[in-house]
Amino acid sequence: MPGEYGETNKMKVAIVGSTGYGGVELIRLLQSHPYVEIASVISSSNAGTPIAEGFPHLTNIVVQDLDGVNAAEMAEKADVVFAATPSGVSSKLVPDLIEAGLKVIDLSGDFRIKDGGTYETWYKHPAPEQKYLEKAVYGLCEISGGNVIDASLISNPGCYPTATLLGLIPAVSAGWIDPKSIIIDAKSGVSGAGRGTSLTSHYAEINENFKAYKVNKHQHIPEIEQALAQAAGEPVTVTFTTQLVPMTRGIMSTMYAQMNGAYSDEDFVELYRQYYEGRNFVRVRNAGIWPATKEVFGSNYCDIGFAADARTGRVTIISVIDNMVKGAAGQAIQNLNLMMGWEENLGLGYTPVYP
Amino acid sequence: MPGEYGETNKMKVAIVGSTGYGGVELIRLLQSHPYVEIASVISSSNAGTPIAEGFPHLTNIVVQDLDGVNAAEMAEKADVVFAATPSGVSSKLVPDLIEAGLKVIDLSGDFRIKDGGTYETWYKHPAPEQKYLEKAVYGLCEISGGNVIDASLISNPGCYPTATLLGLIPAVSAGWIDPKSIIIDAKSGVSGAGRGTSLTSHYAEINENFKAYKVNKHQHIPEIEQALAQAAGEPVTVTFTTQLVPMTRGIMSTMYAQMNGAYSDEDFVELYRQYYEGRNFVRVRNAGIWPATKEVFGSNYCDIGFAADARTGRVTIISVIDNMVKGAAGQAIQNLNLMMGWEENLGLGYTPVYP
Amino acid sequence: MPGEYGETNKMKVAIVGSTGYGGVELIRLLQSHPYVEIASVISSSNAGTPIAEGFPHLTNIVVQDLDGVNAAEMAEKADVVFAATPSGVSSKLVPDLIEAGLKVIDLSGDFRIKDGGTYETWYKHPAPEQKYLEKAVYGLCEISGGNVIDASLISNPGCYPTATLLGLIPAVSAGWIDPKSIIIDAKSGVSGAGRGTSLTSHYAEINENFKAYKVNKHQHIPEIEQALAQAAGEPVTVTFTTQLVPMTRGIMSTMYAQMNGAYSDEDFVELYRQYYEGRNFVRVRNAGIWPATKEVFGSNYCDIGFAADARTGRVTIISVIDNMVKGAAGQAIQNLNLMMGWEENLGLGYTPVYP
Amino acid sequence: MPGEYGETNKMKVAIVGSTGYGGVELIRLLQSHPYVEIASVISSSNAGTPIAEGFPHLTNIVVQDLDGVNAAEMAEKADVVFAATPSGVSSKLVPDLIEAGLKVIDLSGDFRIKDGGTYETWYKHPAPEQKYLEKAVYGLCEISGGNVIDASLISNPGCYPTATLLGLIPAVSAGWIDPKSIIIDAKSGVSGAGRGTSLTSHYAEINENFKAYKVNKHQHIPEIEQALAQAAGEPVTVTFTTQLVPMTRGIMSTMYAQMNGAYSDEDFVELYRQYYEGRNFVRVRNAGIWPATKEVFGSNYCDIGFAADARTGRVTIISVIDNMVKGAAGQAIQNLNLMMGWEENLGLGYTPVYP
Question: NCBIfam families attached here (chains A, B, C, D) (predicted)?
Answer without folding.
Answer: argC
